[in-house]
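Hello,

I think I submitted the glutamic acid job twice by accident. Can you confirm which output corresponds to this input? Input:
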Amino acid sequence: MRGRFTRHGLRRIAGRRIGKLAICGLSLAGLAVATLAGGALSAQDLRFFRIGTGSTAGVNFSIGGLISSVVSNPPGSRPCERGGSCGIPGLIAVAQATQGSADNAREVGLGRLDSAIIQADVAAQAYGGKGAFAGANRQAELRALTSLYPETLQIVVRRDAKVKTLAGLKGKRVSIDTAGSGTQALARNVLARAGLRPADFKPSMVDLGTGVDMMRNGQLDALFYVGGVPAPAIAQLADMVPIDLLPLPPAALAAFRKEEPAYLAMTVLAGSYAGVTTDIASMGIYSLWVTNSKLSDDMAYALLKALWHKSAQPMLANGHPAGRQMALASALNGLTIPLHAGAARFYTDMKLLKTATPTAKP
Ligand code: GLU
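Support: Only one job matched these inputs. Its output is below.
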């Protein structure tokens, strides 16, 4: 949604079409009133920029909201130098709930979504035209703005299901998340490597929030989630029902890294969730904020300047544990697709890159 909004368009969004959009730190109703009433505040000067995330229960919906907050600066905001938003004048960014990485990659690649948070493994597949993105489904226009934070594979089991290993999921009721999520893509791969075909267990394809509800109600034995630790939805579950996290065997991690070197060894630390009393070996992958190559270079540059402005750091860090892991210094970690040209220019100016040529492997 890259166009500017008319007064009518803004009112329509404010009134009816908002759906699952989070505009952090902004009151949409107040904004609409301020914008529509004041002659000096022209709705023509507003630009709306969407960030696709994942399901509302996931960490990325919160992270997308935080990013929206720091890059937005609609008319009437408190000035940056007085402790207000240091975002892009006239910009209203919104975090939008989606199915997750795979859907996001397609929507951004096709230019139907301005930007999104996606797993770097899914980005590599989409940009490289592999797996579900083969042939005409290749998303060659996908570009990275920045790396955000490492997401962790979390395989949550109810303790009373008495499952200790991946192979133990045989015959169990397991949520692999929704089709279109990056979680499902990785879950299928992990299960296949453990020798489990979908016929070997009872799969559910539900989002994190639904999966947690089903775990709590005894309708599921296990669920997969690829995302930040601690994930509040899993923390709530652990507070109500005894859970364990399944470890990933080191050999499986080695095999995954051979396939995609961007996979990382990750550890879910003891105490991350109630009842998880030992460190759990797992794997992870950076989440990337991606856009389409057709986004203007100036806009890509301005988004990053706002995101990595020093005033944004405390907001990110205080907003969510995953936000504490986000920093300009790690903005180029784990990239699997080329940088947007405007992003490359920004990182060159920040002296993180030597030339403004996008350097990530194509
Ligand atoms: N990485 C997950 C996915 O693409 C989403 C994680 C989240 O929603 O926090 O499916």
